[in-house]
Specification:
This protein is mostly helical. The protein has 2 domains: 83 residues; 161 residues, no CATH class. The protein is built from 8 helices and 4 strands; from the N terminus they run αββαααααβααβ. The chain has a two-stranded antiparallel sheet with strand order 1-2. α6 packs parallel to α8. The longest helix has 32 residues.
């Protein structure tokens, strides 16, 4: 246990610094200016209109550094799982599998999947209510991060299932099967996540007429989640088509 902690500690620290840096870079881009106060002389303001090179170097540079840190954290986490014995199930996957088996959720797969999609539709519809939009601040950058993040999640989940959990075949998703086991049934989990994201986008679309710009970007956020998962799944099917089984 202590050895695993020592291996996971660098992952946690790199991820922490990546989150901090990406927040700083994101807020800088949203603010649109950087105020520099030298010890001698008046303060200077860097913005896209004034000294754009310095502004983009600092703001976009921080986001680039954060992305590199996330990549390093992902590589460290991948190496951690590769060090574990291939094909050995972890405790989390065993608990999830036992819960699904004992509660007989697999027999109610179609109903549970339908309930999840209906709840996601209501979630997207309710998220567009004006008083909830007052606390939200989505924009194009946030939507782009969501789109790329969902694509990365799709490939990462399947890659871990193959390398970390030792899955030689990938089960094709089905409307009749309910699964929460990302380790051994990633395609089903991705399929349902994509369906849930589509439900949220569809629910939000019903509130688009007469909404504000914040509401529009909230709808775009849900849409980017759906598109990212959809693109990621298509890419996964192309890359790992030989591993996909019909059952």
């Amino acid at each position: 246990m202590k050895q695993q902690f020592h291996r996971l500690f660098p992952v946690a620290m790199v991820t922490f610094f990546g989150v901090v840096i990406v927040q700083i870079g994101y807020k800088t881009l949203r603010r649109g200016r950087i105020t520099y106060a030298p010890e001698v002389g008046p303060a200077e303001i860097f913005s896209p209109e004034h000294r754009a090179a310095e502004f983009w170097t600092l703001s976009a540079g921080m986001l680039s550094v954060a992305v590199l840190l996330f990549i390093v954290a992902a590589l460290l986490l991948f190496r951690f799982f590769r060090c574990k014995a291939s094909g050995t199930p972890n405790r989390v996957s065993l608990v999830v599998a036992a819960f699904v088996r004992r509660s007989r959720l697999h027999r109610l797969g179609s109903i549970l999947n339908l309930v999840c999609v209906l709840l996601s539709f209501w979630t997207g519809y309710a998220a567009m209510v004006p008083h909830k939009l007052a606390d939200a601040n989505p924009d194009a950058i946030f939507c782009t991060v969501a789109l790329l993040g969902m694509i990365g999640l799709s490939f990462g989940a399947v890659a871990y299932s193959i390398s970390g959990a030792g899955q030689q075949t990938l089960r094709r998703p089905s409307l009749r099967r309910f699964s929460m086991d990302w380790w051994h049934d990633p395609l089903q989990c991705l399929f349902m996540s994509c369906s849930v994201a589509a439900g949220m986008a569809l629910g939000a679309a019903f509130q688009l007429p007469g909404t504000s710009s914040t509401g529009f970007w909230m709808f775009m956020f849900f849409l980017c989640l759906f598109l990212g998962l959809l693109i990621g799944q298509v890419g996964v099917y192309i890359v790992h088509r030989e591993r996909i089984s019909k059952t």
